[in-house]
Amino acid sequence: MYETEVAKEIIDIIMRRLNNQPLNVGKNIIGIDVHLKKLKLLMNTELNKVSVVGIYGVGGAGKTTIAKAICNEISHQYESNSFLRNIKERSKSDILQLQQELLHGILKGKFSRISNIDEGTIMIKRCLSSNRVLVVFDDVDELKQLEYLAEEKDWFESKSTIILTFRDKQGLAQYGANISYEVPKLNKEEAVELFSLWAFKQNLPEEVYKNLSYSIVDYANGLPLCNPLSSNTTI
Question: Model pTM greater than 0.90?
Fold first, then answer.
């Protein structure tokens, strides 16, 4: 019996790996492996409780890209997963669409469309409480934006994981985050390497462009999304 259960679990993991569509994290992602290693050391997805992981830092530091990358790494460990982008802006007028996206991910597309927010909230609570899921809420800046999506972590089944990207740590604590990870700015060497990869397709700029490169890096102040050449696809 035990061997049968283990074999079934292995098959389920393999199938989830094959069926999962990875999120696009772009290219030339400086330091992403370090971030993933640190996050995975902090996370224990086998604990018999709901884990709330907070990724926080200043705007442009790369929180969204790191959240996408960790989702790609661990999503196969869950029955289903959902990544909801740009919560701050979309929650102002797009709650019903956000609910439908969340349900689509959790139920793998197997649900009837909801007709109103109240109906969506009831269905979400029922589905979250009966499935081990990984859900990412990206770019949250106040908790009321989650009121109709996942107001409390108690909505979730044990061993589920919630990942939130926030600009400040205080909001994470209010939601009950038990794991917090601050995304630092790039140091000067990393920033120069990032700029050079995009501008010159090599790790370091040639001597003639060195002063210009450092001036641009100083302007960006260690924030990848302030890099004028790489802002669309880097962390």
Answer: no
